[in-house]
Amino acid sequence: MHAWEVVRPGPVEGEPLRFVERPIPVPGADELLVHVRACGVCRTDLHVSERDLPVRRPRVTPGHEVVGVVAATGEDVLDHAVGDRVGVAWLRRTDGTCGYCARGSENLCPASEYTGWDADGGYAEYTTVPAAFAYRLPGEVDDVALAPLLCAGIIGYRALLRAALPDAGRLGLYGFGGSAHLCAQLALAQGATVHVLTRDPAARRLALELGAASARGAYDEPPEPLDSAILFAPVGDLVPVALRALDRGGILSVAGIHLSDTPPLRYESDLFYEKELRSVTSNTRRDGRDFLALAARHGVRATTHTYPLSEALRALRDLKAGRFDGAAVLVNDFPART
Ligand SMILES: [Zn+2]
Ligand SMILES: [Zn+2]
Fold this sequence. Notes:
- Residues 14-330 form the Enoyl reductase (ER) domain.
- The protein has 338 residues and is of the alpha/beta class.
- It has two domains: 2-141 and 301-331, Alpha-Beta Complex (Quinone Oxidoreductase, Chain A, domain 1); 153-279, NAD(P)-binding Rossmann-like Domain (Rossmann fold, 3-Layer(aba) Sandwich).
- It is built from ten helices and 17 strands.
- The protein has helices at residues 43-50, 99-102, 143-146, 152-163, 178-189, 201-210, 238-245, 267-271, 285-298, 312-321; strands at 2-6, 17-21, 31-41, 66-73, 85-88, 91-93, 113-114, 126-130, 135-136, 170-174, 193-197, 214-216, 226-231, 246-254, 276-279, 304-308, 327-331.
- Strands 3, 4, 5, 8, 9, 16 and 17 form a seven-stranded mixed β-sheet that branches. It has a six-stranded parallel β-sheet with strand order 12-11-10-13-14-15, with helices on both faces.
- Helix 6 links the parallel strand 11 and strand 12 (214-216).
- Helix 4 (152-163) packs across helix 5 and helix 4 crosses helix 9.
- The radius of gyration is 19 Å and the shape is globular.
């Protein structure tokens, strides 16, 4: 099969990834072999390719927003069958036994493993996933539209939960890429007023089309104080900017796995009056299931730009350069081989 591997992590303007031929992977006893149909391109793939995240598996295949079809099952798998459509997401495995797992915070499990970082992901014709971490997908939505929901969507949902937006609250979104544009749709469907703050004019237009009440530059002030804000841009300089935009008691959640250093915070202007700054670490499977159900109910749809699987590097370059709004999705246009 064809697969991308990160051979020399570094700037994507160079050639950190290579498109190679590899054997089709063999699923473990508790795993599924998945024929990839579509795989979203997430900013984390860029961080893995450029070594903003440390190398955890040499020559890893990135990709953790996979929509595919079960092509084979390991001998211990009872609850999935060949032909089922499934989603493969970032959280790949946890120990299920530690204190965090026991209290329902499996996203904090110290033994957790991640698709496209610890194990090969979906920038390939086939991938594997532990059956217990595969998502069942609603039948009616197409593969490409679903793929970005599996990380961008789920993480945006968790960031929204962490931001604890009150009913009919005022929500600020800093940065407006794949994750934010899905989060905005859900927040709007639930009755929020959404203000978008981002440098990119095309993203500001998309925000207004989707129903945002305002769209301004990333460092601008929103038109009203915010009850909650989510920082999607990986830009630490925006942390105090967003904190100052909060009303008393407001909460800022930082959605990204990687953030440039934050400047010093000033207690009085940035944190006093019980403002809170929260991080977001991965997600639980429950977040994933809840979000996929809400997205189906409210018709949350990704704005997508497709690339053939063979052009993943171009997709990553375009993501880095901000050359599209919404989310990029790789489409596997090779015929099935099994
Ligand atoms: Zn655990
Ligand atoms: Zn992701």
